[in-house]
Amino acid sequence: MTRLSQIGEWETIRRVQKILGSPKIPAPHKLLVGPGDDTAVVNFTTPSRLAFTTDTLVEGTHFRLDWMRRHFSEKEVWQGLGWKAMAVNLSDLAAMGGARPILALLTFGGRGDISVDTVENVARGISKLTRNLGFSVVGGDTIRSDKTIISITLVGEIVTHNPVLRSGAKKGDLLGCTGPLGLSMAGMELLQRESILSSKEAKFLANCHIRPVPKLKEGEILGNVDIFSTSMLDTSDDLRTSLEILFRQSAVGIECDLSQTLIHPALSWFCKKNGALPYDYILNGGEDYQLLFTVPASNAEKVLKKIPGAYIFGKITDKKNGIRLLDNGKAMRIKNERFKHF
Fold this sequence. Notes:
By secondary structure, the chain is of the alpha+beta class. The protein has helices spanning about 5-20, 65-70, 75-95, 115-135, 185-195, 200-210, 215-225, 240-250, 265-275, 280-285, 300-305; strands spanning about 30-35, 40-45, 50-60, 100-110, 135-145, 150-160, 175, 230-235, 255, 290-295, 310-315, 325, 330. The chain is globular, with a radius of gyration of 21 Å.
């Protein structure tokens, strides 16, 4: 097994670049200088509304290798982490209401004794998304680190009429989501607890955790003028935190009824098997990377027709009402079991 310390930084970069392919960015923008120099140089056409985002996966905080290695091969583990590192950034673009990726920068940190295969598999996971979506990693950095770090900065272009912000929800709007919540948290717990993922439900949930699918198409639909989503954010955080962000940034009240959410059959299976309640996972999960959105009531039916799996489960009210969580119209008592960044 060849280790990074044996081949050095430049050979590592060369091998990663070979896997990622010749750098290219979507027309009409032009990449003037790609990987290998002090910076990448890009000629962006104007007018162009660019969107910038960055996200980082840190070993021990965002993933546990010991859990993943119980269920997946080394190749699957590292390709999954490469995929996820890029997917979470693409999800941020999706939440702006329609943005196409243009280019990315990658920083990888690891111990000197980490294998070259590991870094190459991270690159392969990333390339599965970049090649499919027609953009490239055009530069980055490699560093020595006691923990594995995968950090990506992504630049995209707003393609709909206007970016959809977290601050635009208005009284009378309806609250919706593009798909089921709680799956990633259930998948993470399966990776932690189980010695083997024997059922199709368990494998599905684990995959939801390590390979989230960014909702770029759904974001563009919600950002188009015929839908006119008034606010949007992705569910990288749990639902409760997402509602608090919407409450704070839009200065509105929120009422949502969890009985109107979509409970995925795999989550029902998991909760029945473990004596748990689906609502706890829907509320306290996170990393599902669905889109939480508000739309004028008159446009809600259009959303449901254009985005299979989307659902409406709440409404926007006066700010003085705060956030009300209901179950079939009755107020809920809930636990506080959320992930905290700090």
